[in-house]
Structure formats: structure tokens, C-alpha cells
Amino acid sequence: MSVLFVSTWKDAGEPTVRAAYENYQSTGCLLTACEAGLAHVELDPRYQAIGFGGLPNSEGDQELDAGMMDGRTLEVGAVCAVRGVIPVISVARKVLEETPHNMLAGENARRFAERHGFEVRNLNSEHSLRAYEEWRANRRGAEVAHLVHDTVTIIGWESETRHLVAACSTSGMAWKVPGRVGDSPIAGAGYYADDDAGAAGATGVGEDIWRFMLSFRAVEFMRSGMSAEAACERAVGIMVDRSPATRDHCSVVFAVSRDGDWGAAASKDGFVAWTCRDGVIESRAIPGAR
Ligand code: GLY
User: Fold this and answer.
1) Around 113, how many Cα atoms within 13 Å sit in the side-chain half-sphere?
2) With left for phi above 0 and alpha for psi between -120 and 50, is residue 40 left, alpha or beta?
3) Domain regions of the chain by residue span
4) With 70 as the cut, is the pLDDT of residue 212 above it?
5) Average pLDDT over residues 5-26
6) Which residues line ligand 1 (CB under 6 A)?
7) pTM to 2 decimals?
8) Are 78 and 167 in contact (CB under 8 A)?
């Protein structure tokens, strides 16, 4: 029996895969393990693109997006533009398990979370408040989230059942227009999982990732027989060829096939993926598209 977790970005990826693997050791449940990996990082204010201390919108509020997909059932749970509740990935899990819907939004997603026992709290940390005040003093406009180490996305795979889960959580683009929603809670854009084909997840500029449906494309390329690496390269290749401006920022898709091989591709240099296979943790830098 083998288990693999893959997650995103230089700083957050290692604690995410570690927490997911540790949880899997006790629960044996991929959904719970992926949720635990993301929740661990959401609750830590050192990671500025997710959960507590994430960089806020242009009015100084964190609006969080999260989503997850179970590759066995194709069930999705997601929330978008939610304020004041963490771990928001756990609210997404409640949507998956406790409602017949895929996504809840904004104020009503927060009310749903409260009904399920989540406490409403201020999500600004000392650092996020200071960063917001500096931004307000200079007003440089929206900054793409990758500059502050972006979304955390995770894929989990287990060999015995060839089961896959994909999940992600983010505070989205720093200083965004209030109400803006990126790729992260959108199944097919920020994440996708189908045990019959593979799973994929994305991170980077949500507008680009969503327009090109990177996660769904990568899964469909794996369904047609490509390796995880080739599927990701093809999905990113379509994006950068059709829209060369997408090379200006680092947008990434990474994938795990139903056989447990993994790969990634990026529009630009700068992305680091972390893996944990059976407890062995490694990182790999992913070069940008040539
Ligand atoms: N990829 C995160 C976002 O653009 O919201």
C-alpha cells in the first residue's frame, strides 16, 4: 500500500504534505488527510496566501475561497468569498458532505459555517494589517497572488484503491476587488479529480487558470493516455500559445495519474512542488514553458 501527496509552493508545500501524511496515518482517509494538510497551513499566520493572516482585498478584508473533489464519487464541495471563518477548507468539506450542492458563496457560506459550529473571527494578522496599510499608502493596484506565495493546492493518491482527491484553499489575489473569485473554488479550474482518469490542481493567476480550465484539461489529457507530466505540459502549452501574456506570471498545473505518477508544468520559472510518498518528503523546481 502506497500513498502520495503533492502540494504547492516553496514555503507552504512542505508543512501541507507533512500534515496530510500524518493525518492519513491515523485516519486512512484521503479526503480527511487533504483537508488536514490545508487546514494546518490555514491556521498558521506565517503563510500569507491562505487562511489566518492571508493578504486581504482592497478594503482590508480576507475573502477566502476553497474547494475539494472526491475522485471516487465526483462530489464537489466549495465555498467562495467567505469572510471570517477558518479553516475554510473544512467549510468546503461540510458543503460536500452536508448539502446536495457544489458551492456556497459569501455571507450565506459564512452563515452555513456558523450553523456548523465555526466561529467568526478577525482573520487579519499583524503582518497582513501592516502589508495592507503599506499597499494603501502606495495604491499599486491588484498584485497577483503568486508574488506572495499563492494558493495551497494538494492532491492525494492511494495505491490500493487507486483513489484520488484534489483540494485547494486561498485568500486569492492580494488587494483584489471585493467579491472577486478566482480559480481555487472552481472544480475544473483550481482542482479536479476522477479516479478513472487522474487528478490535477492549479496555482497562480486565477483568471488565467480558470479561462483555460487547467485542471480539467490535464485530467482529460491523462484520460486520453498521456502521463501526468505530458498532460500538464500540454494544458499549459495551450494556455501560453493562445494567450502569450500568461507567461508574465507563474501559473501552474500539477497532476497525479491513477497509477500514481506525478508531473507539473508552469507558464514561467519560480514554482516549487512538494511531494510526500510513503513518508519521504521531497521538493522539485518546475521550469517555465519554453
Ligand atoms: N490562484 C488563486 C487565485 O487567483 O485566486
Assistant:
1) 31
2) alpha
3) 3-196+272-286
4) yes
5) 94
6) 145, 150-151, 170, 172-173, 182-184, 203-206
7) 0.95
8) no
